[in-house]
Amino acid sequence: MANADAPYGFLPAEPGAHVGHYSCDASAATIRIGDVVMLETDGFVELNTPGTKPEDVIGVAASYHANGTAGDLDVWDDPTTVFRCQTVTGTDFTQAMVGDCADAVSSAKLSATSTHPNSQYELNIGTLAGDGASAQFFIIGKVQRPDNALGAHCDVLVRFHEHSRNTPVSVAI
């Protein structure tokens, strides 16, 4: 059975993940549950952007924040948290990808003004680091469920590789 193309962002794979409380200013973009977030130089949280320095990434949004408003944001901020996510369209997930690293990418299926609370982020396995380093997430393996097969849109388990409180470790593959 083929996996459904239904990205949901990065969600803790197990209950009990640590939640930190942060602030967003009115310039923050819409942040959805499951979006990767970073800390800006002004101390406010913002949506992760491509090329974000590892020391700026603080975790994954655990609550929704509407753009154009100041407020609080809950963040799963422990770098050892194991997350589940879906792999990006266009590349089949294989067992050989376990142990490599990849970045988060927005599938852009929602408009910036949509009030849908859940993330559309996926794991970009189309551009693996290839060296077990140099990307945001370390791939642990496939989510073991009967309805989840290797291939397109596979749900996988990951943990942060690049995080403000985590020193990236080089892993030989």
Q: Could you describe the 3D structure shown?
A:
This is Putative structural protein. This protein is mainly β and 173 residues long. The chain has one domain (11-160). 0% of the residues lie in helices and 31% in strands. It contains no helices and 11 strands. The strands form 2 sheets. Strands 1-7-11-10-8-9 form a 6-stranded antiparallel sheet, with no helix packed on it. Strands 2-6-5-3-4 form a 5-stranded antiparallel sheet, with no helix packed on it. It is globular, with a radius of gyration of 15 Å. The relative contact order is 0.25.
Sheet with the most strands, sense and barrel status: 6 strands, antiparallel
Q: Going across the major beta sheet, what is the strand order?
A: 1-7-11-10-8-9
What's the number of structural domains? 1
Query: Radius of gyration in whole Å, from Cα?
Result: 15 Å
Low-confidence stretches: none
How far apart the termini lie comes to 30 Å
Question: What global shape is seen?
Answer: globular
Order of helices and strands: EEEEEEEEEEE
Number of DSSP strands? 11
Protein name: Putative structural protein
Organism: viral metagenome
